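[SOLVED] Predicted holo structure with magnesium ion

Edit: marking solved, answer below. Original request kept for reference. I posted the sequence and ligand SMILES and asked for the 3D complex as structure tokens.
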Amino acid sequence: MDTALALGWLHATAAAVEQHEPELTALDSAIGDGDHGSNLRRGFTAVLAAVDALPPDTPVGAVLGKAGTTLISTVGGACGPLYGSALRTTGAALPTPKADITDLAAALRAGLSTIQRLGGAVPGDKTMVDAFEPAVAALERAAFDGFSLREAAALAAEAAERGARDTVPLEARKGRASYLGPRSIGHQDPGATSTALLFRALARTAGA
Amino acid sequence: MDTALALGWLHATAAAVEQHEPELTALDSAIGDGDHGSNLRRGFTAVLAAVDALPPDTPVGAVLGKAGTTLISTVGGACGPLYGSALRTTGAALPTPKADITDLAAALRAGLSTIQRLGGAVPGDKTMVDAFEPAVAALERAAFDGFSLREAAALAAEAAERGARDTVPLEARKGRASYLGPRSIGHQDPGATSTALLFRALARTAGA
Amino acid sequence: MKKLINSPESVLDDALAGIAAAHPELTVDRAARVILRAGGPRPGKVAVISGGGSGHEPLHAGFVGPGMLDAACPGEVFTSPVPDQLLAAIRATDGGAGVVFVVKNYTGDVLNFQLAAELAAEDGIEVRTVLVNDDVAVKDSTWTAGRRGTGATVVVEKAAGAVAEGGGTAAEVAAAGQLANAASRSFAVALSPATVPAAGRPGFDLPQDEVELGVGIHGEPGRRRAPMRAARELAAEVVDAILAEHTLTAGDETIVLVNGLGATPLLELYIVFGEVSALLAERGIRIARSLVGNYVTSLDMAGFSLTLTKADARLLELWDAPASTPALRRP
Amino acid sequence: MKKLINSPESVLDDALAGIAAAHPELTVDRAARVILRAGGPRPGKVAVISGGGSGHEPLHAGFVGPGMLDAACPGEVFTSPVPDQLLAAIRATDGGAGVVFVVKNYTGDVLNFQLAAELAAEDGIEVRTVLVNDDVAVKDSTWTAGRRGTGATVVVEKAAGAVAEGGGTAAEVAAAGQLANAASRSFAVALSPATVPAAGRPGFDLPQDEVELGVGIHGEPGRRRAPMRAARELAAEVVDAILAEHTLTAGDETIVLVNGLGATPLLELYIVFGEVSALLAERGIRIARSLVGNYVTSLDMAGFSLTLTKADARLLELWDAPASTPALRRP
Ligand SMILES: Nc1ncnc2c1ncn2[C@@H]1O[C@H](COP(=O)(O)OP(=O)(O)O)[C@@H](O)[C@H]1O
Ligand SMILES: Nc1ncnc2c1ncn2[C@@H]1O[C@H](COP(=O)(O)OP(=O)(O)O)[C@@H](O)[C@H]1O
Ligand SMILES: [Mg+2]
Ligand SMILES: [Mg+2]
Ligand SMILES: [Mg+2]
Ligand SMILES: [Mg+2]
């Protein structure tokens, strides 16, 4: 992962969020308050404006850090601080100028820890963690197995998508969906779904 | 018209209002505020309670006067004072103990004058006057022609019903429907419709 | 129809029970259906009495209290009160200095207040009437029922109430109300109709992409339908409709009421107010005072009305005078 | 979706323009999206700052003013504010005596306020937080997000604001807010869902003969559906739900808030209040103070929430303390 790839990733994520906004809105309407799609759209529109204005020699970590700060400043809601802080932590953990898969996996693991520290969610609580954790685990495994970034990112995206789908039968214990108790069962978590978009965007950007 | 006939008339009117409440409501919803049916139902429920509590020897004029006062006290809206005052005037104009058709026609003409004095409407303004006036005129003609009360009341009811139907193409110039201007055209006036019920109830009570 | 009621027949009585429980500072005569300032008649003070159909809350009960009304008489939903209520209100508030009625110009209201005034006159009580007729959606003409009374009622009740509180004579109280009315014009837009409990269905149907322009506060449909548009464009249409029938011009000051019809979020009313304020600024009209919220509602109708009162020093003084009512407070 | 807006994206900015125009007594920083008491920081006075998603008006902007909030930070519709707004509010109000945040317990609100407090701490400003969590529809547990903050926010902001206005320390202000919160429990019933402008469709579907019990103020569906019933029965269900999780018992005094969710006529809220008052009387609980109207809304949702605050002399004193805000005034 380098500056160009990070920028590509953020652009791809923004495009995916734009395209899937109605789906995210619908999922959040079912078990939340219907703003997850517009929250992320607003956030990633601002992220693109912010990172595209950075000098071309900005280190990869600073690009992701800027993206995180921008999300924190523009999104609000639960996902703004969670995604924003995670990206900040991830960026801070990335070596310059270029991170290999092991570095990237470690940095994203740090980002995940931030999400879990701030939000207190564990896997199975029906949150973005349910997609984020398996994605990071898949990256770690792929790094250990010596896969290319293209292959690793594809595995992470698949894991995230599976994780998101697997939130359907869960009863939410964190976030707004938890207010529904058992009525949250049968719906896919919007945050886990947007996390899957994030990792799919990474895979696409890495050429998968 | 005597006390028994007046009581019968009021009961028959109450029953007709009850039965046609949805129709009156629908007509008033279209070009008014949707309360004409419930207004009259509330009023005639109170009227029955009031006149049934009168001593049996109450003169016919006093019965109608009581009915009028009760309508004024319980209906509100435009039709409460108009119908109520009209009945009071009619009652005050009826000789005791029994009025012939000429007396009744004259008393109802006096009641109509009260409606017109209070409300300022003339025939063609798309109000209750458009049913009331032809009904009274028919009674007057029938009295002149020497018809029986049964025949006279039937002619009055027909005239009132025709008058009500004929309000359909009119543009309202008085009452709430006048706010609609040309959009009031094509709807039958609720007050003219209830006036037709009143005269039909008289005809039924008189044995027609 | 889904409403927080016990039955369509008991709406008024049940609401009166709630008003009585919620406002110990008021006296509610539930039998007579009159809401009164506590403490009985005030000797030497002109009594200001208003009333009208229920379904417009906080109008009128919410404006009973020092500085505004002495009594409010609520009729059945969208139905004017009956003369008995108005007479009871007169008896409970007349302090010997006379009575002023505030009457919105609807045939039913006018007739019932008129009958009450005639009966009061028989008791030797002189009643003056201020007729409110601010709604420019209806053309004023002696051949019709004339312009309706809507949002300006708040301004009229405030002005009349202030003069009465200050010890004005009945003639002065009525004159202040008439001044406020003459200076005010209103226009309303509905996004959805109201449902009268007794009727059980909406007063009119409105497609998803249309609005009713010039709607009344009793669920009466408006003069015409128009396509739904941005708040900015609707506000412009409403401002223009009012200014076409108003003496307000560049350099003037105005009291602005952006009023919710019952089911419109305050968030949206503020958006409308922002647009109105920009439109008035463009036309050189200065907003001296303003009110945003639900004041003269129409049950569960969605939409707003705009009232513009041309404000001179006298009207501003009356508008700013102290008032302590459930829905309007001035220190 | 039919709304008085210009576009879903501009809702907040357009509403801020309207709030600024309607309330010259407030300072609206439209760039920073903060609503402030006019006059800048008050040296020596603790600053009380609240905020949350838009769509709940008059909460919070309507409670800015002497005796209540120093600043309100509105987020996008149903979305908590961002830390930048809260930091701007702190900078604009900090008079050196400390800052108290009033935060409704939602993950998003908690996180954004927490990030802001951490950043403020880096600037040497200590921020205390009062967490509002009064909604008994949600079971309280450390394993979940916990009870939500709803109607009690008004009571908390009033209590904290009163102590701050009276010169209390930051610890005292926070303690007053916590006292008000601990004494309050709420429960809401929706008759129809809210439509978030950006979503364009209602948050949930509700058949004509059903209600959502325990609904949230962000269009979140409730815990369960139940058949629509008379106001009396719905009120009983709500009162029982609250009392099951409340220390209120016979002989106690309470502050009662019957709050409209946005699209409910005041007439119906008074009917509900009447029923609540009868139910509390049956249980020997005395209503010491009350509030009926739209205070913590949920856009165009129809329905009501009930908040019962167990009132002791201290809370009543704070409740009665002077306040001068757009939505709550006390002489
Ligand atoms: N405590 C938490 N930990 C991790 N993720 C959470 C937590 N709370 C909520 N989320 C995630 O945030 C998503 C909702 O985001 P969003 O709709 O933008 O915020 P809000 O709930 O404030 O409206 C949920 O679907 C969930 O995945
Ligand atoms: N000025 C008037 N003169 C005669 N009849 C009138 C007048 N105004 C209204 N009406 C009659 O009253 C009817 C409406 O009665 P109702 O619905 O009970 O009163 P409101 O219009 O006050 O709701 C109209 O259909 C019309 O026939
Ligand atoms: Mg959400
Ligand atoms: Mg009617
Ligand atoms: Mg009516
Ligand atoms: Mg949200």
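OP edit: Residues 266-282 of chain C form the longest helix (17 residues). Thanks to everyone who chimed in.
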